[in-house]
């Protein structure tokens, strides 16, 4: 066995260790440990990606000495490694970009706990990406939920704590449903490992035995994950949680936490239930419908919003709708588009959050649109970054959002039944996106004669500006040379089955 | 209706409890009762699992007198899963209770609707 | 044995329902504690002593203590505020 | 001048402009603000009955609540009730089709549980098959589970930890203001019970691989013992042997030990390297390879965390 195959396991374990050790460190040291950790894990994930690309197949890593149906396993293929790499990069950039706000908004003696939480959050995300065992997935889903709650409430005002309570209630409902579905699936198949489960499910589906419990279990798992990832009717907690938490948390939550759950759902669809069996149930039509509704209603709520951060948060609801719409197509192309959108949305949404904080900072801390007038001149970097993010969200060519919309449109054309609604809603949603994002961009570049707020220079926030540039580059790279990434996604999805 | 509803009466009770807990979580506006509802929901799932692991006429999976026959013991896997689950649910409820204390200190009520009304009044 | 188990399951449902309809919070917490203890006995009947011992220690014991402490804390906060109001 | 309108304020362009300026909502603009309404009598009664804060009668809640919100709440409640009933019915319907209870031929009694039972004793050295399964076969899950407990304690610390020494003193006083100090009965009972509880907890931890129990339950029992001691004698007595510093050291050491043992186990197992931890003779206390040390670490961590929850809830510090 090659040494590289240890890397997925190492990255999860390293994150857990870093989190545990950080809980005994001072604020500064914990921050350093966290940055080093993110660097190392990025390298490890990159190496795994290269390895899987070279060998052209996925590998299974047994955690312990007991083989397949008895012990825990993790599994890495191209898609897993790519997602892990991407998650690490985004998390690193989000933390760097929000670091100056973190020091202001979190009690000074408790900053180290923030890094403990992010370390463990990263470990849970990696475990969700790599896991090959349903119960491990459940345990790490819980870690993910609790640490996300911690990230929301670490900025302790009434608003965030209330948001955290709402988030927890919805999330725990979701976890309860997920656990129940998982138990039923275990009862029907007798396995907890994904590959063995898939065999049993295929056998059950072929013989028609236990048909109803199987469908109910699939429904429970899907609904649980939908609740946790804030699909449209379950999004009530989202604007408060994203809008009031400290900026790094908002960026991480919107771009990584919900995406981790969605990735788990993809994994379950492909590796536990089987794409065809999942497609035969009517669940994907429901997902499709709610995805479309989310796209419209999320954008409408964003248009109504008067607060820039909450507007971006509502835009997340719309974007999650896109992802579920891709699932709902029930084709390989739709899934590819969804996965690409996961990556592109992660890159764009965290950029928007980080840029928005730069704009509000030079507007006296107010997040109302009226105060943001001309903020793009006072903080040039943030203004440029916000513009790039908005253009990408709207779907301008050159940026990543364009590619994902193109992929969605291509996927829609292939599916004759769902083509018309998908294309119409895609168009409408793009227009709505354009309305609220362009409104903001126009506002931040509206010149004002006299401003009460001073502008900010590059020297003052070097780290922040570098982060923004990195984000912009990431977006443009995803937009211009998207073909290799799309190929990798296709290859990875092929490895799943 | 399927054939096993009355044979599976334990599971049926677990599902009822799950529904009751779910309802508590959705309908109660008092936070403490929401948390209790959450715990009821979790334990219901564990009851379901434990019922599924039970096999009539067999004993707990602790090797006694060197008997290592599969016919002698019940399925150990559900017990292990529930053991993990119980610890998860106690940590979650501790976290929720801590959140409740903080909310009470800030808003002087345990009613979630009331809290959102106060938030609206603050106009933040 | 089967009858005993059925009675216990019935008790579980009664407890769960009465938690929802009790007005007093302390009472509902005590009912929840008894719910956990009944669950414990059911697990012994289902031949899972590991679960029973864990549930007794964690579910019925520590969780209930945490609930009580939280209730006490909330009462303390309320009384503190009450005193402040009196002084004004 | 026919184009001049006197209601320029309400023209579309003006509304659009105001929306761009972020002053109003484009869509909400048409909606009239409903004048303040007294909440319905029944609802207020309900609210004052079971919420704690309103019981003492200060600040009676008079809110300008639009009719829309009231309808929304009614609607929400009705939908929730329907949803719950629906879920219960669907789940009961599902149960009717599930494999029957207590039947040895069910799909979950397959080769997986067979190997755990038939070879568990030889492969893990644990007499208690459940312990062997969670700490050896599925060791990664269980490590994740201890991390759940760890992260929950971190979150509670964020929420309730009070840094300021003065505030700490105040809180400690106010917490015990309404109860008798140094209760002789409580202290006498605690003096007798605490050692017994501790010994019982340690017994359960050390016998985790031989009899029911293990790190989690034993740790919780020990935590309960610490809680009893503290509530009888106060925090000062406990702080003499267990303060924040020791808590941190104990917690980090326990988890790191667990992590190291676990990592050694995973890596050697996965890479096919021989594992040098002896399994011992089944049935003895010092047996079963990694299970005993892991149980010990877990027990320590759980005891610390349970006590930390209590202390943080009680006075905002350890």
Protein architecture, described:
The complex is a heterotetramer of chains A (497), B (124), C (88) and D (318). Chain B is mainly alpha-helical and 124 residues long. Chain B has helices at residues 9-27, 31-53, 76-107, 112-122. Chain C has helices at 2-21, 25-45, 49-87. Chain D has helices at 12-21, 41-50, 67-97, 111-124, 129-137, 139-160, 165-175, 184-206, 215-233, 235-239, 244-271, 291-315. Helices cover 65% and strands 0% of the residues of chain D. The longest helix of chain D is centred in the N-terminal third of the chain and has 31 residues, at 67-97. The model of chain D is unreliable at 25-64 (pLDDT under 50). Chain D contains twelve helices and no strands. The chains are: A mainly alpha (497), B mainly alpha (124), C mainly alpha (88), D mainly alpha (318). Chains A and B meet through helix 6 and helix 7 of A and helix 1, helix 2, helix 3 and helix 4 of B.
Q: What labels would you give this structure?
A:
heterotetramer, A: 497 residues, mainly alpha, globular, D: 318 residues, 65% helix, extended
What's the alpha carbon Rg of chain B, rounded to whole Å?
20 Å
Shape of chain D: extended
- Tally of structural domains of chain B: 1
Number of strands of chain B: 0
* Overall mean confidence score, pLDDT of chain D: 76
Assembly status: heterotetramer
Which segments of chain B are poorly predicted (pLDDT under 50) over 5 or more consecutive residues?
Answer: none
SS summary, helix count of chain D: 12
Total strand count of chain D, please? 0
User: Largest interface, counted with CB-CB under 8 A?
Assistant: B-D, 70 and 74 residues
Write the layout of secondary structure elements.
The complex is a heterotetramer of chains A (497), B (124), C (88) and D (318).
Chain A lengths: L6 H16 L4 H29 L3 E5 L8 E5 L1 H20 L1 H7 L5 H20 L3 H20 L4 H32 L4 H14 L3 H18 L9 H7 L2 H27 L1 H6 L2 H22 L3 H22 L2 H30 L13 H4 L1 H15 L5 H15 L4 H26 L17 H19 L1 H15 L1
Antiparallel strand pairs in A: 1-2
Helix pairs in contact in A: 1-2, 1-5, 2-3, 2-5, 3-5, 3-11, 3-15, 3-20, 3-21, 5-6, 5-11, 6-7, 6-11, 7-8, 7-9, 7-10, 8-11, 9-11, 10-11, 10-14, 11-15, 13-14, 13-19, 14-15, 14-19, 15-17, 15-18, 15-20, 15-21, 17-19, 17-20, 18-19, 18-20
Chain B lengths: L8 H19 L3 H23 L22 H32 L4 H11 L2
Helix pairs in contact in B: 1-2, 2-3
Chain D lengths: L11 H10 L19 H10 L16 H31 L13 H14 L4 H9 L1 H22 L4 H11 L8 H23 L8 H19 L1 H5 L4 H28 L19 H25 L3
């Amino acid at each position: 066995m090659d040494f590289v195959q240890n890397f997925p396991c190492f990255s999860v374990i390293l994150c857990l260790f870093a989190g545990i050790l950080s809980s005994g460190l001072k604020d500064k040291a914990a921050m350093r440990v966290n940055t080093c950790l993110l660097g190392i894990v990025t390298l490890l994930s990159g190496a795994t990606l290269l390895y899987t690309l070279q060998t052209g197949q996925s590998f299974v890593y047994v955690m312990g000495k007991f083989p397949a149906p008895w012990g825990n396993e993790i599994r890495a293929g191209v898609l897993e490694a790519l997602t892990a790499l991407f998650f690490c990069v985004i998390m690193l950039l989000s933390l760097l970009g929000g670091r100056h706000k973190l020091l202001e908004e979190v009690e000074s003696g408790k900053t180290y706990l923030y890094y403990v939480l992010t370390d463990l959050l990263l470990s849970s995300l990696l475990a969700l990406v790599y896991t090959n065992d349903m119960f491990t997935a459940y345990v790490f889903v819980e870690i993910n939920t609790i640490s996300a709650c911690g990230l929301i409430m670490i900025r302790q005002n009434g608003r965030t704590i209330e948001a955290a309570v709402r988030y927890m209630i919805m999330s725990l409902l979701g976890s309860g449903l997920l656990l129940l579905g998982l138990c039923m699936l275990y009862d029907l198949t007798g396995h907890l490992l994904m590959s063995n489960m898939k065999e049993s499910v295929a056998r059950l589906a072929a013989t028609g035995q236990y048909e109803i419990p199987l469908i109910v279990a699939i429904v429970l798992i899907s609904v649980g994950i939908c609740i946790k990832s804030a699909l449209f009717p379950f999004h009530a907690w989202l604007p408060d949680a994203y809008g009031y938490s400290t900026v790094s948390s908002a960026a991480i939550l919107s771009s990584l936490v919900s995406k981790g759950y969605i990735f788990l759902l993809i994994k379950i669809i492909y590796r536990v239930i089987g794409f065809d069996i999942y497609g035969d149930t009517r669940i994907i039509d429901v997902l499709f419908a709610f995805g479309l509704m989310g796209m419209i209603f999320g954008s409408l709520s964003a248009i109504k919003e008067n607060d820039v951060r909450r507007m971006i948060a509502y835009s997340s609801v719309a974007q999650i709708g896109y992802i579920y719409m891709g699932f709902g197509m029930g084709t390989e192309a739709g899934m590819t588009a969804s996965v690409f959108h996961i990556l592109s949305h992660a890159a764009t949404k965290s950029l928007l959050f980080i840029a928005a904080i730069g704009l509000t900072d030079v507007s006296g801390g107010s997040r109302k649109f009226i105060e943001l007038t001309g903020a793009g001149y006072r903080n040039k970097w943030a203004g440029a970054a916000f513009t790039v993010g908005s253009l990408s969200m709207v779907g301008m060519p050159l940026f990543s959002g364009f590619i994902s919309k193109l992929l969605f449109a291509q996927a829609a054309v292939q599916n004759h039944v769902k083509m018309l609604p998908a294309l119409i809603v895609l168009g409408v949603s793009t227009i709505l996106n354009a309305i609220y994002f362009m409104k903001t961009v126009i506002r931040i570049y509206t010149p004002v004669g006299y401003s009460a707020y001073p502008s900010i220079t590059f020297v003052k926030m070097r780290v922040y500006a570098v982060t923004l540039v990195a984000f912009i580059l990431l977006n443009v790279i995803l937009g211009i040379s998207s073909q290799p990434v799309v190929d990798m996604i296709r290859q990875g999805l092929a490895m799943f089955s | 209706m399927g054939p096993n509803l009355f044979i599976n009466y334990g599971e049926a009770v677990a599902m009822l409890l799950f529904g009751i807990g779910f309802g508590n979580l959705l309908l109660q506006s008092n936070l403490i009762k929401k948390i209790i509802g959450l715990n009821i929901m979790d334990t219901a799932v564990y009851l379901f699992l434990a019922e599924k692991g039970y096999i009539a006429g067999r004993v707990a999976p602790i090797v006694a007198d060197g008997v290592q026959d599969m016919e002698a013991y019940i399925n150990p896997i559900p017990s292990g899963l529930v053991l993990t689950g119980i610890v998860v649910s106690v940590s979650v409820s501790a976290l929720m209770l801590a959140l409740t204390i903080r909310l009470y200190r800030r808003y002087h009520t345990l009613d979630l609707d009331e809290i959102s009304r106060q938030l609206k009044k603050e106009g933040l | 044995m089967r009858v005993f188990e059925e009675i216990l399951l019935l008790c579980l449902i009664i407890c769960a329902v009465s938690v929802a309809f009790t007005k007093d919070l302390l009472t509902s917490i005590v009912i929840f504690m008894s719910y956990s203890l009944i669950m414990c006995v059911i697990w012994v009947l289902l031949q899972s002593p590991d679960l029973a011992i864990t549930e007794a220690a964690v579910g019925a014991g520590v969780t209930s203590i945490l609930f009580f402490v939280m209730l006490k804390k909330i009462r303390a906060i309320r009384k503190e505020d009450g005193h402040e109001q009196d002084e004004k | 001048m026919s184009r001049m309108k006197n209601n320029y304020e309400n023209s579309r362009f003006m509304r659009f402009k105001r929306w761009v300026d972020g002053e109003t909502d484009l869509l909400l603009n048409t909606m009239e603000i409903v004048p303040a309404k007294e909440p319905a009598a029944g609802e207020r009664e309900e609210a004052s009955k079971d919420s704690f804060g309103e019981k003492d009668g200060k600040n009676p809640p008079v809110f300008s609540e639009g009719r829309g919100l009231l309808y929304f709440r009614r609607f929400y409640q009705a939908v929730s009730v329907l949803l719950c009933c629906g879920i219960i019915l669907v789940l009961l319907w599902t149960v009717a089709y599930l494999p029957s209870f207590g039947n040895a031929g069910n799909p979950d009694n397959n080769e997986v549980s067979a190997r755990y039972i038939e070879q568990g004793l030889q492969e893990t050295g644990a007499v208690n098959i459940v312990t062997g399964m969670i700490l050896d076969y599925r060791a990664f899950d269980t490590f994740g589970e201890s991390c759940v407990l760890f992260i929950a304690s971190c979150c509670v610390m964020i929420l309730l930890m009070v840094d300021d020494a003065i505030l700490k003193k105040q809180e400690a006083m106010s917490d015990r203001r309404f109860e008798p100090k140094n209760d002789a009965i409580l202290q006498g009972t605690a003096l007798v019970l605490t050692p017994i509880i501790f010994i019982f907890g340690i017994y359960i931890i050390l016998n985790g691989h031989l009899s029911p129990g293990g790190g989690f339950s034993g740790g919780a029992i020990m935590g309960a013992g610490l809680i009893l001691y503290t509530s009888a004698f106060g925090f000062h007595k406990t702080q003499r042997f267990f303060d924040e510093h020791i808590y941190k050291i104990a917690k980090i050491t326990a988890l790191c030990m667990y992590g190291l043992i676990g990592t050694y186990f995973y890596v050697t197992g996965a890479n096919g390297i021989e594992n040098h931890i002896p399994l011992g003779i089944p049935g003895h206390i010092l047996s079963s390879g990694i299970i005993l040390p892991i149980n010990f670490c877990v027990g320590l961590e759980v005891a610390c965390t349970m006590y930390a929850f209590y202390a943080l809830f009680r006075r905002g510090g350890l």
